[in-house]
Design brief:
Number of strands: 20
Distance between the termini: 16 Å
Largest sheet: 7 strands, parallel
Strand content: 15-25%
Oligomer: single chain
Structural class: alpha/beta
Helix content: 25-40%
Shape: globular
Bound molecules: adenosine-5'-diphosphate, magnesium ion
């Protein structure tokens, strides 16, 4: 087994080099074979393809015409070799200072014979009428390693100090001679139908490709493989979860659910009903729920989550409801208050600004089981927060939390059910990569009577004038700024610098501001006054981005809209149009930036979060979106979700097909695949446990 073959036994390694290689996490023959190049140099004498992006390098292959040493005035020694190629003469310079291997070159000097051919690698320095190259490597055609380093496409690796690129390349070359020991892990009919080359041939060609065509084939195969393994792992994890017995059974008693429904004052939408059904049946399953509730901003996720909490509480369990910001936690708390009015449910809120005494009281009540539902922020994840019988965790706006926080929360109860909610619409492929282990419910339809927010790109003056018109009609408004303080970039309006002027402009109306750094209690006061309609204009930073819900606030001005990403703009705009009335969003931007304009146009034209997310993926690339989503745990060796979406689509289809026929990969032909999954995910991510 190549994964058991210790690297120190590879030809050319030994204990000392093995030590250096371990810094690159190379311990076995398999590790080095799967240590893929970061790029390639085209060192072929006759270059054929040009549709590939090579790392810059210059080569010369020619006949030695002359060689001699020169001493310059700065005591720099240069060894010069004059080469004759087909159509010119090239001066090859070996610098003493620049090249620590000068002694090596002096040796070469001994071996140089006029009239023989040599192969030089380096950097060209063009001078008028003269070709010059600053030499890095030299090879003789009878050199045994000639075909590793010269006249071919050569791999370039990210390395650590202590090992030079030439040595490493040769080690990989040696390793590749054993690549036939690499087991195939993908069914042969898939290889055929998807046009994929074998694993061992891909490994060989990813390091030492015959040509660009074979390199591309190798990449395709290995990209497929990486996505395939990930997808398999997620799916297996999902089915393994189903073997856990959570030792609690729920009964739908409706003692709390019915009065809650009556309190709402509206009917659930069809997709809310469906989501609630999905969730209830998950919660009643013997194994834990891990369900993602995805729905555009304003689609009504909160009441779905509350329903889940009530089922748990009806059955004497405790719930926690986690929100990413204090404002949002507070908002949820107010929603609970409103809809659970008169119901025998004990709920509390805990955030980092909860006074100490109150905090202790809440913590002890949670431990004794005297609180049914706790709403809060990250403060809930802290160690000291313990539960008597936590059965359900709701995580709102999941993208603001990391996978690790999800895991910590999970440990606060026994096989708890998890409901994760997100309004951040992400492209399907990215979604499956990030949340492949979750079941999903979508809220497709918006609550009845909701009208899409009308969005316009206006000048600042037009936007404020319009806003004033709406204020006169009794509508409340948000004015949103990208930054809070004056910045050195004068063209960007900041909350603090503009606040005074706005107060003046909206004279006669109550204009207030809110921003992240403000004290928690102050924020709460302002939010509740705004919710009660006492404040008419709320000037804010993007602290209001997530989850705020004030139905009478139907106008939003977004200053320097070019500074916000598409997802943020959509989230921000989602704060309005939450009631029955028409809502208007005015984007102010004088930017000439092409991408920014595309974003602004996109948001003016569409209110569909999924459409916008596809546009966003197109404009920014998925990689960048992922970067902002705190998923450091998602790292690919060779695949790229933005570039390889088509391949990923194939993978998803194939994985589903395989698992349908062999859900636990127990068939003999999947033995190698199982071993591979165990090696990669079994230990490192502790995702699956197959043996
Ligand atoms: P989000 O999905 O963005 O979290 P919320 O849960 O905050 O959305 O819901 C947005 C608003 O819509 C809230 O005021 C909520 O009370 C209201 N709402 C939720 N469901 C319905 C419904 N079926 N009919 C009418 N209004 C609803
Ligand atoms: Mg919400």
């Amino acid at each position: 087994m190549i994964s058991q073959f210790n690297i120190k036994y590879l030809k050319g390694v030994g204990p000392k080099r093995a030590d250096i290689l371990s810094k690159l996490e190379i311990f076995t023959l398999k590790d080095i074979l799967f240590y893929f190049p970061r790029g390639y140099e085209d060192r072929r004498i006759f270059k054929k393809e040009s549709d590939f992006e090579f790392i810059d390098v210059d080569i010369v292959y020619g006949e030695v015409v002359d060689f001699f040493e020169v001493y310059t005035s700065t005591s720099l020694r240069i060894f010069k070799i004059i080469l004759k190629t087909l159509n010119s003469q090239v001066e090859c310079n070996v610098f003493k200072k620049a090249n620590r291997n000068y002694d090596v070159f002096l040796n070469i000097k001994k071996n140089l014979i006029k009239g023989t051919k040599i192969f030089v690698v380096g950097k060209a320095e063009d001078e008028f009428f003269k070709r010059k190259i600053s030499v890095e490597e030299i090879y003789f055609p009878d050199d045994p390693d000639f075909n590793i380093h010269a006249d071919r496409i050569v791999p370039v690796y990210s390395l650590t100090s202590g090992i030079n690129p030439k040595v490493f390349r040769k080690l990989v070359f040696n390793a590749c001679s054993q690549s036939e020991y690499v087991n195939e892990i993908i069914d042969s009919d898939i290889l055929v139908s998807r046009g994929l080359i074998s694993r061992s041939s891909a490994i060989k060609n990813i390091h030492f490709p015959q040509n660009v065509f074979s390199l591309k084939n190798a990449m395709k195969r290995l990209i497929y493989e990486e996505l395939f393994l990930m997808s398999m792992a997620w799916n297996l994890k999902k089915s393994q979860t189903k073997n856990i017995n959570k030792q609690r059974r729920y009964e739908i008693k409706k003692k709390l659910l019915t009065p809650f429904k009556n309190n709402l004052g509206f009917e659930f939408t069809d997709s809310q009903k469906k989501a609630i059904n999905d969730i209830f049946s998950d919660m009643r399953n013997p194994y834990p729920m891990t369900r993602l509730l995805q729905g555009d901003v304003g689609s009504g996720k909160t009441v779905v989550a509350i329903s889940a909490c009530l089922l748990a509480v009806e059955n004497s369990g405790q719930c926690c409801f986690l929100a990413p910001t204090e404002i949002l936690a507070e908002q949820h708390y107010m929603t609970f208050k409103k809809f659970l009015d008169g119901l025998p449910v004990r709920f509390e809120i805990l955030t980092s600004s909860t006074p100490k005494k109150k905090k202790h009281e809440i913590i002890s009540k949670l431990a004794s089981g005297d609180i049914d539902i706790i709403i809060g922020t990250h403060a809930l994840i802290e160690k000291e927060v313990r539960f008597k019988n936590l059965v359900l965790a709701v995580i709102d706006e999941q993208h603001k939390f990391g996978v690790r926080q999800r895991a910590t929360l999970r440990q606060k109860g026994e096989n708890i059910d998890m409901l994760i909610m997100t309004a951040t619409p992400i492209p399907r492929t990215l979604f499956l990569a990030l949340y492949g282990d979750l079941d999903v419910s979508f809220l497709k339809d918006m609550p009845k009577g909701r009208m899409p927010v009308k969005t316009f790109h206006l000048s600042r003056q037009q936007a404020l004038d319009k806003t004033l018109e709406f204020l006169k009609k009794g509508v409340q408004a948000y004015i949103v700024f990208p930054i809070i303080d004056e910045s050195d970039k004068l063209e960007i309006k900041s909350l603090l610098s503009e606040y005074g002027r706005l107060k003046e402009f909206f004279k006669g109306y109550n204009t207030q501001m809110i921003y992240g750094r403000m004290k928690g209690s102050e924020k709460q006061k302002i939010m509740s006054e705004f919710a009660e309609g006492k404040i008419h204009v709320l000037c804010a930073t993007s602290v209001i981005e997530v989850g705020i819900d004030v139905p009478n606030a139907n106008v939003m001005v977004i200053e320097n809209a070019e500074r916000f990403g598409l997802a943020s703009l959509h989230q921000l705009r989602g704060r309005i149009g939450r009631g029955k009335d028409e809502a208007y969003c005015f984007l102010v931007s004088e930017s000439k930036d092409h991408q920014a304009m595309e974003r602004i146009n996109a948001i003016c034209q569409s209110t569909n979060g999924f459409e916008l997310s596809e546009k966003d993926a197109y404009l920014r690339g998925i990689g960048e979106i992922m970067g902002t989503m705190q998923h450091g745990d998602m790292e690919f060796k060779i695949a790229s979700l933005s570039r390889d979406r088509e391949i990923f689509e194939m993978v998803i289809e194939d994985v589903n097909k395989i698992l349908k026929e062999d859900p636990y990969l127990t068939k003999k032909e999947h033995l190698a695949l199982r071993k591979e999954l165990n090696e990669i995910y079994g230990k490192k991510w502790n995702i699956i446990d197959l043996n």
